[in-house]
Specification:
Among the domains are: about 10-70, N-terminal domain of TfIIb (Single Sheet), CATH 2.20.25; about 100-130, no CATH class. Helices cover about 25% and strands about 15% of the residues. It has three helices and three strands. The protein has helices at about 10-25, 100-105, 110-125; strands at about 40-50, 50-55, 65-70. It has a three-stranded antiparallel sheet, covered by helices on one side. The protein is elongated, with a radius of gyration of 28 Å.
Length: about 140
């Protein structure tokens, strides 16, 4: 495997990003031999818009870790004081009907406490929870 020190991305913004990625993986250890990943085991493969692709493997035991796609956010748009931030419309679930959207869109989103309360409620129902459900009346319909 070619190392990042063998002339791959020698500097500048992209080289600095790759060096940061290599540093990150050097702080991790191989699950097979428990040795830290070395620069020789970290290979730059390619760069795509906003992403650097690297191949990582252990140079001690030869076991591959895999391919890593690392997102880079170097091209964030610069806002001038004249550009107000647009308020994003909340994303509603696609399966909601128009009626659901009108009825629920202004409700606050579910939070951690709501989920916890729901779990506590279901846990309090006990094993015979089905008897607490409303009974559905069966009607005998005559077919003509």
């Amino acid at each position: 495997m070619g190392a990042y020190g063998d002339g791959y991305l020698g500097g500048g913004v992209h080289g600095d990003n790759f060096a940061a990625i290599a540093h990150y993986f050097q702080q991790r250890t191989c699950k097979n031999c428990e040795q830290p990943y070395s620069p020789e085991g970290i290979e730059f493969l390619r760069e795509e818009p906003g992403v650097i692709v690297v191949k990582v493997g252990c140079s001690m035991c030869g076991r591959p870790l895999g391919i890593a796609l690392v997102g880079m956010n170097n091209m964030a748009p610069q806002l001038t004081p004249k550009q107000p931030l647009a308020k994003a419309e909340p994303q509603l679930p696609r399966e909601w009907s128009k009626r659901d959207a009108e009825r629920l869109a202004e409700k606050p989103p579910i939070n951690y406490d709501d989920v916890l309360a729901a779990h506590q409620f279901f846990a309090s129902l006990g094993a015979d929870w089905s008897r607490k459900l409303p009974r559905i009346r069966k009607t005998n319909r005559v077919k003509n």
